[in-house]
Amino acid sequence: MSQKAVTVKDVKIKDSFWSPIQDLVMDFMLPYQADILEDKADIEVKSHAVQNFRIAAGEAEGEFHGMVFQDSDVAKWLEAVAYALTVKSNPDLEKRADEIIALIGRAQEEDGYLNTFFTVKQPEHKWLNLQECHELYCSGHMIEAAVAYYEATGKDELLKIMRRNADLICSRFGPPETGKLRGIPGHQEIELALMRLYYITGEKSYLETAQYFLDERGREPNFFAEEAAKLDWHHFGMKPENREYAQNHLPAKEQTEAVGHSVRAVYMYAAMAALAAETKDEEWLKACRTLWGNIVNKRMYITGGIGSTVAGEAFSIDYDLPNDTVYAETCASVAMVFFARYMLEIEPKGEYADIMEKMLYNGALSGMQQDGRRFFYVNPLEVVPGVSGKLFGHKHVLPKRPEWYGCACCPPNLARLITSLGQYAWAQSDDTVYCHLYVGGLAELNLADINVETNYPWDGKVKIAFTQKNNPSYTFAIRIPGWCKDWTLSLNGQPVKAEVKDGYAYITREWETGDIVELNLPMEPKRMYANTAVRADIGTVALQRGPIVYCLEEVDNGPNLAALHLPRDAKLLPKKTNLKGLGDVVLIEAEGLRIESSSDLYSDTPPQSKPAILRAVPYYSWGNRESGGMRVWIHE
Amino acid sequence: MSQKAVTVKDVKIKDSFWSPIQDLVMDFMLPYQADILEDKADIEVKSHAVQNFRIAAGEAEGEFHGMVFQDSDVAKWLEAVAYALTVKSNPDLEKRADEIIALIGRAQEEDGYLNTFFTVKQPEHKWLNLQECHELYCSGHMIEAAVAYYEATGKDELLKIMRRNADLICSRFGPPETGKLRGIPGHQEIELALMRLYYITGEKSYLETAQYFLDERGREPNFFAEEAAKLDWHHFGMKPENREYAQNHLPAKEQTEAVGHSVRAVYMYAAMAALAAETKDEEWLKACRTLWGNIVNKRMYITGGIGSTVAGEAFSIDYDLPNDTVYAETCASVAMVFFARYMLEIEPKGEYADIMEKMLYNGALSGMQQDGRRFFYVNPLEVVPGVSGKLFGHKHVLPKRPEWYGCACCPPNLARLITSLGQYAWAQSDDTVYCHLYVGGLAELNLADINVETNYPWDGKVKIAFTQKNNPSYTFAIRIPGWCKDWTLSLNGQPVKAEVKDGYAYITREWETGDIVELNLPMEPKRMYANTAVRADIGTVALQRGPIVYCLEEVDNGPNLAALHLPRDAKLLPKKTNLKGLGDVVLIEAEGLRIESSSDLYSDTPPQSKPAILRAVPYYSWGNRESGGMRVWIHE
C-alpha cells in the first residue's frame, strides 16, 4: 500500500525543541536573509541576488554580480518562506515574497527562459555549458519554490512562471529519437524539482524529463566532454574527465557507491528515490537501496555529516572519515533528509527515518548559529585551536560559524528544511498513518487529527492523542528508533500489543476520539563506538542520548580535549540545564581523566592520568559560546 | 677547549651495521647514480645533469634539461664519491669523478661563474633572481664537493674551480658599504659551503661572506620583494611576501622557531652553528640553541623526521605532528645531522649526538631502499592502503619508495651522508677524544688510534681498544645515550670511575696501548610516549630498542594496523632474526590485541579484543617487503 509524506500544510508544529527554532527562522532569519538578498543587511558580502533579477527585468541598470547560480539563493529563500507561511502567518514576509515573485516573472524571457546570469551577462552562452553553468540547477530550485509556494499559499503566480520554464526545459532536453537535445545537468537538482512539479500538476512530461536526466547521466559518450569540446570558453575550469565528481562515471542505475561532490550526489539519489517510489522500477529501487546503504553504513559521520573530503567537497572512500579535515557540508546533510523521505515512500523502514532524525538533530542543525546570523558549511567533528581554519588541509574547517557566504547555499537550505519539518514527521496511506518523527503539534491527516505532546529529544515520553474522522478503523504506525532497545508503548494507559516490523510498531484497531498512545523511549546516555575500519575513531568513544550526539567543548573542559579520556566504566550523568546561548539542553557529565605526559616531546615515562569531570554538550549546539576546541570522539 | 669533528679520512669503518650499507652505496648506488646523471640508466626519469655541463662547455649540442638546480645532483654525487674513496679505493668511480670534474672546469665561465642553467639557457638572467633560481645553492653544493674531494683524494682541481667561483660570489655579494651588492640565497646552502671552504683554505673572505648571507637574511627591506619588483619574469612563481617559507621573516639571529621549508631551514641552522662554533658569538650561539630546542622539543617526529606539512615541505606549528600527512623529507633529516655536528663543535652535549644517531638509524636511513635503487623523499609514520599516496592531503605520502625523481635531492644527499659517516662518529681537541657514535672500525686520531668492535645497534656492547701515540695523557669522552639509563663502563675489565657530564662519560688517565674500554648499553625494548600536546599520538605507544624506532607493517601483522593494541603490561620480546630483504635485524614481538567491532558503522556494542601477536620491525627498514600498511604509533 503506497504511502506518501504529508504536505507541510497538514502539520502545525508546537514543539518545545523545534518551535523556538522555527520562530527564529521565521521572525529573524528569513527577513534577515531577505535583507541580504536585497543588499540591505549590514554584512561584508554583497549578495545582489534580487538586483540581478531587477537588471534582467530591465528595471535597473548594472552588471550581474555573484555566482553563476546566484538565482538559487532567491529560490531557496522563497521555498523557505512558503513553508514558513504554513507555520504562522507573516504578511510582511509574504508581501516581500510576492513582490520578488512578480519581479521574477518580469525577469523571465518570452520563451520561458529564466536565469539572470545568462539574460544579463552572457545571453550568447545559454544552454551551452550545462556542466559548469547551473542553469538547470537554478531552474530546479525555483521550481521547488513554486511548488512549495503554491502548496502553502494557494497562489500560483510562481508556479505558472516555472511551468513555462519547465516546459521549455522539457521541450529542449530528451532522447534524440524524440527530436530533442541530449543533456544532463552539471549539478543535479532539476530532477527532484520536476518530480515535485509532476506530483502537483500530473503533467507526464515533467516525470519523463526527470527520468531522462537520471537515465542519461553517466552514459557514453561523456556528455560533458562532448559539450566542452565545442566551447572556446569555460566558466570554472571543471574537468569533464573527472566523471565521478558529478556522478557521471556510470549510468545512475548502475551506481553502487556514493562518490563525488556530496550535494550533487544526494540531490540525485533523492530524485532517484522519488522516481523509484513513483515508478516502482526495480532497478531504480535497487540502486537507491545500494547507494543509501553505502552512505549510511560506510561513508557517514556519527553526526550525520557526509562528504568527508574538502577535495571536491566530496565523498571519499569507505570508512575514510577523518574528524578534523572533514567536509560534511550542511547542504549534504539536508539533502540526506530529502533522500530519506523518498526512501520512506518506497518502504516504511525505520532506518530511513532514523537517519532523517540524525540529520535534523545533529549534522544539519549544527550548520546554524543559535542566533540565526551565522552558518557552518563545514561541520567538523574535531576542532583544534591553531590548526582548524589555519593549517593546510584544515583551512576549510572553521572554528566559528561565518556570516553569509558568497556561495550562500547552506543558510537558505537550512531555512527551508526547518520550516518544512512537518512534512518529514508524518506520512499516510489509505489505511495507515505513519509517525516518523516525534514532533509536538497537530497533524491534520485524512484518517484522523493527531496531536503530539512531548519534550523530545530531552525526554523520551511521546504522548499521542487521536481525534477521529469518518472511518475509525485504520493502522497507526509509529517508528521505534534504532538507537532504543527498551521502549514501551501503551494505549490509554495500558500496555498494547503492536506488531513490530522494520522499525515501526503497528497498531490496527477501531480508534476513538480521545485515545491516547504513549511511546516511552528510555533516554539513558550511551557510549557509541565506530567500526574499527574507521581508522580515525579507533580507541575512542562518542556519547549519544536519544538522537542527540554529543561533543566536548573547550569552554567546558579546558584546552587539549584530545588529552581527555572517558574510562569505559565511568557513569554518564544526564543533566538538564539552561546554558547561556544554548537554551534548555540536557548535558552529559562523567568522571573522566586528563592524561598528563612528561614535559619531554618523547619519553619512556608513561603519561599519568588525573581525574577530570567531562562535560558533553549536544553537537548541534557547539560553537555558540566561547570559541575553542571541540571534539566528538573521546579517547577511552 | 675547542673540539672539532674529525675528517672522514681519519676513520676506517668496519661495522656490521654500516659497512654493508656503505658497500652498497659504493659498489652499487654511486655507479648507478652516475649512470643516471649520465643518462645511461634504464629508468623513466631523464637526468641530463652531466649533459648540461657538456652543453655549457660547448662540447655538445642541445638544450638544458631539468630543474634550475640540476647541477647540484652532480655536486652531491661528487661529494659522496669523495667520501666513498676514503672508505675503499675504487679506481673506476674515481676516474668517472675526475672526468666529470674536468668537464665542470671546462663548463665554468671566464670569471668563475658556474651554473649550466644560466650558461646554457638564460645567460641574460644571471644573478637576477636569487629567490627562485638556486645559483648560490648549486655553488654551495659544488664547493662542498670540492672540499670533500680535496680532503679525500688530495686532488685540488675541483677545489681550484670552486675557489674561482667562490671568489666571484664573495666579490659580488656583501655589505653595500664595501661596494658590493645586497643579496641572500633563495635556498640556503652556500653559507655552510663557504664555512667549509674557509676551514681548509683559511681565506677570511669565505667566512665573511658566509656570515654576510646569514646576517642579511630576514632584514628589512625584504630582499626578495625588491628583487622581484625589478623582474618581468619569474621561475617558479614564488611569493616573496611568504617570508617564513625561506626563513626570511626575521634576522636569522633573532629567529626562535623553526619555520618554513625544512631543508632550507636546517641548512641555515647548520651554517649558523658552524659560524657560532667558529666565532663564539653569543647571539649566534643563542639562536642556534633556541632553534635546536624548538625542533627537537616541539617539532620532530620520534623517527627524527622534521617538517610535518606538505604545504611548503615545511615546519608546521609546535606539536603538530600528524603521522599520515607528514612530510619529513629525507634531506631534512640529513641536514639535522649536519646541524648536530656543528652544535657538537660548540659544546659536547649528548643531546646533539643523540639526535644525530636518531637520524642516522631512523628518519634519514629510511629514505633508502635496501637495494639502493629507490628512495623516499617523504617518510611517513603511518601508511594506510587506499589512503596514502591517493587521497587529498595524503598524495605525497607514498607507500613504496619511488625511483629517482626529477627533483633528485634526497638520493645523493643520503649517499654523501652514509659515505661520510666516520666524520660524525669522532671528534678531538688537543687533550680529548670524543666518541659520539658507536661505529665499528679504526679511528686514527691525533692522540691515539682507537679501534671499535661492536654489533651495535642490535647489541649494546661497545669494545674500544686504544693504541697510543706520543702523549699518553689525555681524556677519552664517550657519549652515554639519552635513551639509556643503566649503562656500565669498564676499563680493562674493571669498573671505571668516569665523570659524567652533559651526556658524556669522561675518563682522564695515562693510556697504554692495549687498554680496552667497554661500554655496555642494556638494550631492553622500551615503550615510548609522546607529549600529550601531540594530538596525533595520544593513546598510543611507540617501540624503541637502543636507538632504533620500530613500526608495524601489514606484511607481519595483517591489515588495519590501527586496530592493533599493545596493552601496557604486555612483555616486549626482542628477537634476532634475518628477514628477507632486511638482513640481520632485531624484531620486537609482543602479545597484543586486535580490536574487532560490530559490523555496524556505529554501534553501542563496545569493540571486543582478540589476542594478536604484534611484530615490530625497525622503522628504517619498512617498505622493503610486500607493500601494505605501516604504523609507528600503536594504540595502547
Q: What does this entry look like structurally?
A:
The structure is a homodimer of 636-residue chains. Chain A has 636 residues and is an alpha+beta fold. Helices cover 35% and strands 19% of the residues of chain A. The first copy, chain A, is built from 18 helices and 24 strands. In chain A, the strands form 3 sheets. In chain A, strands 3, 15, 16, 17, 18, 19, 20, 22, 23 and 24 form a 10-stranded antiparallel sheet that branches. The first copy, chain A, has a 7-stranded antiparallel sheet with strand order 2-6-7-8-14-10-11, with no helix packed on it. The longest helix of chain A has 20 residues, at 18-37. Chains A and B meet through helix 13, strand 15, strand 16 and strand 21 of A and helix 13, strand 15, strand 16 and strand 21 of B.
Unreliable parts of chain A: none
Oligomer: homodimer
Helix content of chain A: 25-40%
Principal-axis shape of chain A: globular
What is the typical, i.e. mean, pLDDT of chain A? 95
Question: How many beta-strand elements of chain A?
Answer: 24
- Largest interface by Cβ-Cβ < 8 Å: A-B, 54 and 55 residues
| Most strands sheet of chain A | 10 strands, antiparallel
Number of helices of chain A: 18
Structural class of chain A: alpha+beta
Radius of gyration of chain A: 25 Å
* Percentage of residues in DSSP E strands of chain A: 15-25%
Question: What's the N-to-C terminus distance of chain A?
Answer: 47 Å
Key features of this structure:
18 helices, 636 residues, globular, seven-stranded antiparallel β-sheet, homodimer, 24 strands, ten-stranded antiparallel β-sheet, alpha+beta
